[in-house]
């Protein structure tokens, strides 16, 4: 049996008529940039997140850049972020002219450690970006406490935590400002690139909205110098449909991960989930010192896997000039050597899940 890592085709087919109709409506009206679909998306996503405002953007990286720019972060400033994450988090900092400062993660959850954030702070620190990795929200309150009384903004990168819960609050409702990505493989993925920023700060929202659309509020009046980072209307139409199914898909992911854990927790180590969060299981990540051989074995049996992420950011060639060395962030480095992601998507059948479980068990036998 061939098991894909994700199955975007199966996801599309599950809501094909709704998606096709939404796309057709946009195409027939030739309403590709701005329009009622984007307005509807921004209104509905803000409400689902429990936030006051939402600005649709071209992608998640752009969302982070817009947030940093709206906070006037640039050359000479530092922004602390985790090393164990995708490069986009640090890229956004660099693209704004600021310097990323990497913090180590918790060994169990693989999420940013507030104690390590505290150590990374300097007089030049203007913000901390926390990343909700694998579907689990980072400990926002702990980081907020670490930067207390220092005029430092805590930014939430929720690219992987759509509708996750932190202390019974929905992601997007409690941080000052939150960035989302709707890359196709996310829990709620577009048919291309798309992102969003949500916040309860109206002035911040207005600035981000202007920055994303050439700094304007009317067609030819530009109050500030911005960029082109809007979500297009076609992606908004698609996401409006997917939004209605997201909670159901998240629950299906949770059930599959629970089945994996029950069957395999004596063979591999699962990433810990804090008692005060409710993950949306964007990825099913396990740790094993036998990663290379296990992945090879699964590939030979047509089971696809992933590694998120094999090289910590402080060890990436792109950030060599920052002067980090091996051993500087030991937990991030160790985790990067052991993590692997098992197949996971809402349409995954019991038969497919059982096959993956059987193959992992067979390897360890």
Helicity range: 25-40%
What global shape is seen? globular
Radius of gyration: 20 Å
Q: Regions with pLDDT < 50 over 5+ consecutive residues?
A: none
Please identify the structural class as seen in this structure: alpha/beta
Strand order of the largest sheet: 1-9-8-5-4-2-3
CATH third-tier fold name of the largest domain:
Aspartate Aminotransferase, domain 2
Strands, total number: 15
Task: Specify the number of helices.
Answer: 13
In short:
Helix content is 39%, strand content 16%. The protein contains 13 helices and 15 strands. A hairpin with a 2-residue loop joins strand 10 and strand 11.
Description of the structure:
- This protein is of the alpha/beta class.
- The chain has two domains: about 10-245, Type I PLP-dependent aspartate aminotransferase-like (Major domain) (Aspartate Aminotransferase, domain 2), CATH 3.40.640.10; about 245-365, Alpha-Beta Complex (Aspartate Aminotransferase, domain 1).
- The chain contains 13 helices and 15 strands.
- The chain has helices at about 10-15, 15-30, 35-50, 60-70, 90-95, 115-120, 140-145, 200-210, 235-245, 245-265, 290-300, 330-340, 350-365, and strands at about 55, 80, 100-105, 125-130, 155, 165, 170, 175-180, 195-200, 215-220, 220, 270, 275-280, 285, 340.
- The chain has a seven-stranded mixed beta sheet with strand order 1-9-8-5-4-2-3, with helices on both faces. Strands 7-6-13 form a three-stranded antiparallel beta sheet, with no helix packed on it. It has a three-stranded antiparallel beta sheet with strand order 12-14-15.
- Strand 6 and strand 7 form a beta hairpin.
- The protein is globular, with a radius of gyration of 20 Å.
- The chain starts with 7 loop residues before the first helix and ends with a helix.
- The model has no long low-confidence stretch (mean pLDDT about 95).
